[in-house]
Amino acid sequence: MERDFTARGHHDMGGLDGGEIDRAEHDYALWEKRVDALMMLCTNRLKLMTVDQLRKGIEALPPEAYDEMTYYERWISSVTNTLLERGVFTADELGAKMEEVRARYPDGVMPGGAAGGGC
Amino acid sequence: MPRFAVGDRVRVHKQFPPTPPSHIRTPYYIRGLSGTVERICGAFKNPEELAFGRPGTPEVPLYRVRFRQKDVWPDYDGNEADKIEIEIFEFWLDAAGDGA
Amino acid sequence: MSGNHHDRHHHGHDHDHLHPYDPEHHHPHRPDQDDTMTYYRLMEEAVRELMIEKGLVTPDDIRAEVEAMDARVPANGAKVVARAWTDPDFKKRLIETPKEAIAEAGHDIGPMKLVVLENTPEVHNVVVCTLCSCYPRWILGIPPDWYKSRSYRSRVVREPRAVLKEFGTEIAGDREVRVHDSTADMRYFVLPMRPAGTDGMSEEDLAALVHRDAMIGVTEVSGAR
Asked: Is the pTM of this model over 0.85?
């Protein structure tokens, strides 16, 4: 059988050897549920984006980022990029708001996610 | 109108779309293989267009295609009868015409 | 994947009332998720506030969506299964017109296009989404972590019997295993087989036997407890 196409997306993993399945589960945190809620509102009600745009944004992540980020980190990253592309808010607005939020957490912000599970 | 009927033999296109970035819903592992139409799911907006914020119309027929696991994985060691079923949009399919 | 559980001891030390602080024996403390601010949590908070300031959503909209998702739990699916086990006409409707049948059972599956896969003595069905994590969330809620993992997504299409075995599920060699990869607009719900020894059980008691993993197809429902 010659399946000789040369490229497959990093997300397109059917048939690879993924190792043993870790069946540990975590309860979803409120912020994760809010990401889910925001996505539902943006697609179903506001029609600001489609689930395929969400997927495209996730698939465009570099492989290392795709593997390291948690599930809802990938979602919020993709949702935010799509809303920026659509001009729902500007990069300057987002930057200013992120600084404002950051200032609420004087103990600092960790670079990645600790509230996690489920890449 | 859907081009294929339930029971038709179809072959999945083998190519990788030429100009990334793209967004496709036909997994790598099934491309180039032949299976049988299990059901017609209806017509849906084209995800390859929707992914870029375009309207995705006209809608495209979507099929569920059934493959023999032995045809998908040459070293498959389960039951001969084991199957895998996948949704595939019509523009990814050709008539197999191979009786395979 | 959640790397950094350690090195976060900056918060208040109420727990020290119980354990006087001793750096030699300081147990690694996994912080509550609420006290760990991360870059992407910060992004979520910022985007949510921008959307609210622009009048696109209200805090109430977000809350209502979260609550709606919290209400989508596997027990809803379990009730549907138990009803299908006890009412053959309902089972027929569930397979032919899932949205309407599930509405009869009191659940709205929204825009979801559902395919109900009936397990039989001849066929066992199992569901995956190799490309992302499509899941019948309108009836079962948010998928478990393992369903979204690289290991499950990559392997179950190629070696379903081995994967099922990891879940403690041994499928007889002469029974067909059918894997369903959710690649587009349909979502899949497995209707497990009713276990032996459950004759005469009430619908409610039967529903209590049905768990999420059996409706994904990685396990089967075992008999009366």
From this structure: yes
